[in-house]
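Input:
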Amino acid sequence: MIVEVAFSRLDPACRSASGRAVAVIDVIRATTTITMALHHGCAGVIPVRTLSEARAVAQRLGGGAILAGERRAGKAVGFELGNSPAEYGRERVRDKTVVLTTTNGTRAFQAAPGAQAIIACSFLNAAATARWLRGTGLDILIVCAGTHGRFCLEDAVGSGMLIDRLLCISDRALELSDAARAAHQLFATYRDDLLGMLRGCEWGRHIIHKGLGADLEICAQVDLTDIVPVMHKDRLVAEYT
Amino acid sequence: MIVEVAFSRLDPACRSASGRAVAVIDVIRATTTITMALHHGCAGVIPVRTLSEARAVAQRLGGGAILAGERRAGKAVGFELGNSPAEYGRERVRDKTVVLTTTNGTRAFQAAPGAQAIIACSFLNAAATARWLRGTGLDILIVCAGTHGRFCLEDAVGSGMLIDRLLCISDRALELSDAARAAHQLFATYRDDLLGMLRGCEWGRHIIHKGLGADLEICAQVDLTDIVPVMHKDRLVAEYT
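Output:
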């Protein structure tokens, strides 16, 4: 089973998605928020690229849909929810469909054309994601959202955590690319202080500067849930492992 | 002093080159070969993108120039030298100008437009490169050649070695980007077995498969020389630190 990592949605490694299972990782905060929403009973999350696309999709869905969007770490003007996992409590999202657009994370779901399966991974569901991926028997491409197409530490560490969980449960050898080996080593470096890593990385410092530091404590929770957000047509829905 | 790392010549981080000192790293093998050539008295190395451009430049320079090129790890057809540092002995290159084209490395020198200075770095001259860079007082962008625009382990580790040397000698704080921090951690992971890392990484295994494994022992030599290849107009020439 081949495991490749793209360190951003613009990484040419994304071109190797064809026929593979793709796990999108945006630890701060899109895939953490999506995982938390589904964990709290959200019916589905539709990731879209732009604010206008989000408005159009939510309008088409009518009253049942929640319009959610983030720009520059804050809630998009006129949107009901931002990209803070703390906003996605059970009472707010249960049985609702969320239309979500973020600067980097939701765009990463369109970065890997030809994928056989697309799922969302975060620290919250790394072990569940590994079990789900092993069940497919497919080669794996992990796509880090990154920041504006650039490497970011927290998504690389998240990739490494997923690879660590895959290595723990795999009954056959994993063929790790250079990027996958590097991500696994970076997880080993930071595994004992994930919250410190989140507070010290570039985007984490920006989130703290915006007064959203409490979100990082949510993003740092490891294997909180057995839910895997799996893309069916246009939306991510909960599957259990 | 800001230190940023682009993990390949296609990394958007290359867009931050303007006004900075750019250190290009292609451990296997272009910047190792360039450093070795200048260490052995080569008058200058002109890095070019294509085989035809190399032929044209060498022809314009006349008899004094050596035509060197690599494709698929081997010597380009009809070229005098390939990209093996073992080929660049003193008797072969002393006082000669080399026109060199390689698949990834020489193209990386064009990846960072607007740079204030461009130099070549490898394990062979990491400490010398760090001294040279500190002397400029400029912010730093390290550009890994990568492999076809993708992350490769050996260039990330080489970036980390250069950052390690910079941290050892810097009299003021370095501001490391996420990618720079990751590279430094990867160097710390592999520093005690650099040759093993070179033999195990993707491109290193390819080089061994091509029967060029002995080159990796040359690439693995650390701080062999005080020479820094510095770009002046179209060519890299030796400066001493």
